[in-house]
Amino acid sequence: MKESFSLDALLRENIKKLVPYSSARDEFKGEASVLLDANENAFGSPYSKNYHRYPDPLQHQLKEKLYQIKGVPTENIFLGNGSDEAIDLLFRAFCEPAKDNVIVVPPTYGMYEVSANINNVALKKVNLTADYQLDLDGIAAAIDAHTKLIFICSPNNPTGNSIRRQDIETILVNFDGIVVVDEAYINFSKLPSFTKDLVEFPNLVVLQTLSKAWGLAALRLGMAFASQEIIRVFNKIKPPYNINQATQEIVLEALQGVEQVNTWIKLLVEEREKLSASLAELDEVAAVTPSDANFILVKLIEPRALYNFLVDKGIIVRDRSKVELCEGCLRFTIGTPQENELLYRAIVDFYATDND
């Protein structure tokens, strides 16, 4: 177990001194017949279902259900308005504006850089290697006394590959700041989640989401798993009612569908491998990056022209051709078998037309 880590040494002074807002639902917990403490509308809501009461600020029922699914104790779970809320809270808790810095490893999820810019925190970029793995020497050289966070997306977006576990562990052991492992796509990978390592690494924060495999993107519910100490910091600075009641209810119901989700995951992985193999056989495809996610990054001839052709066909993919280390690439989300077939046939048609 890592023993040199000090959360207190990383926290901003104003966060240490912060007295969090105490909501009515924080002060009273339990059942009552007359609630006159939170200035709610006692007559109800102009809707078929009443939403006039404030929601549970700490989402206890949801966390209990996630504990049953994920095996992570409720005290180690933070729920946010998408993973983006947890990302922003990390900056606000640990990074002194115009003083501290964070490290990202491009190509990667763009929200880390956006949050850094919003919070006026310097961003250091250490590019992945040619095979989309961590440059450990480069990261070590970039760390200084003001480096507070290192963000690692695995499986990585937009490349789809998993980052070598041993390399992530090397950083966890040797870096005294917070290491954030973003596992938004972990459900599509055979590799184990880092949530099993929270006790061993007190400087580890694992991000996951219900937007991908669980198909709940519109509800905006993300998860952060970390030590109880870090979760307490998140809860201290988050908005009082950051997850609304309707989202809590719908997600709680959706979490009953584990078997359905597992069936979808199996099918998506099969479709991913099928589409990857089919595209790799095309002469115009230079490379298909092996993926552990629900998308594939494909290097092709004339990617922008192909992108426009697909748009005209009503097929929308992601153009990553101008992203460093992804030159000439489009990113294809894996859809239904029918959608994947439409995509493949459209690509074949484009190159056949282009060659006429």
From TrEMBL:
It comes from Sphingobacterium oryzagri. The modification N6-(pyridoxal phosphate)lysine is found at K212. The gene is hisC. This is Histidinol-phosphate aminotransferase. Homodimer. It is an enzyme of class 2 (transferase). SUPFAM superfamilies: PLP-dependent transferases (SSF53383). GO terms for molecular function: histidinol-phosphate transaminase activity. It comes from the Bacteria. Belongs to the class-II pyridoxal-phosphate-dependent aminotransferase family. Histidinol-phosphate aminotransferase subfamily. It catalyses: L-histidinol phosphate + 2-oxoglutarate = 3-(imidazol-4-yl)-2-oxopropyl phosphate + L-glutamate. It holds the Pfam family Aminotran_1_2. The keyword Plastid does not apply. Keywords: Amino-acid biosynthesis, Aminotransferase, Histidine biosynthesis, Pyridoxal phosphate, Transferase.
